[in-house]
Specification:
This protein is mainly alpha-helical and 184 residues long. 77% of the residues lie in helices and 0% in strands.
Length: 184
């Protein structure tokens, strides 16, 4: 089942995890324009999320490993960066808990599907939109531009709604027994 690992798409997913270190350094460092460099690296990490799926479909590299490492890379990167943001009071603790709790529940739901149905569940479009909404909140929180505070608040609350929506869709897919490999 988990045969092929080293594909271009899995490389991009792995790179997303590796980028955690330079993103963290830039965010915490005090050098000039460190927030701008952090945003640039975050955008590169977001780009790897797009590229892994694009390459997997383009070159027919959709693998069980890819179905595992892509969402796992998202969860690791989001959780780690959320810890940085909450520790510097850039995002509220309750938002951090909501994001991480959803990811933990989805992770264990995916393990359940794998064990019960021998299917490696893959991300759906709702999950990708949810991760994108979290990324927008993180980018705005990183920039810390006072003129964008209202936009950040709207993004944060919109993200909460999108996270809930995607969680409901994943849960519905799990409990109704819909094929975990399908989109939506």
């Amino acid at each position: 089942m988990l045969r092929r690992f080293w594909t271009i798409s899995n490389f991009f997913s792995s790179l997303r995890i590796v980028l955690i270190l330079p993103v963290s350094y830039c965010y915490l460092a005090g050098f000039p324009h460190h927030r701008l460099w952090t945003v640039i690296l975050l955008l590169a990490a977001i780009g790897t999320d797009f590229l892994d799926g694009y390459c997997a479909r383009l070159w027919h590299q959709v693998t069980d490993w890819g179905k595992i490492i892509d969402p796992l890379a998202d969860k690791i990167a989001v959780t780690f960066y959320a810890i940085l943001l909450v520790s510097t009071h850039a995002i509220p603790l309750w938002y951090f808990i909501a994001v991480v709790a959803r990811d933990v529940l989805l992770f264990f739901g995916g393990i359940y599907i794998l064990k019960k149905k021998r299917i490696v569940p893959q991300s759906n479009i709702a999950g990708k939109i949810a991760v994108g909404s979290v990324a927008i909140v993180f980018l705005l929180a990183t920039l810390q531009i006072a003129r964008l505070d209202e936009l950040q608040a709207v993004a944060l609350w919109s993200s909460v709604v999108i996270l809930a929506w995607s969680f409901v869709l994943y849960t519905k897919r799990l409990w109704i027994g819909r094929d975990a490999r399908t989109e939506g």
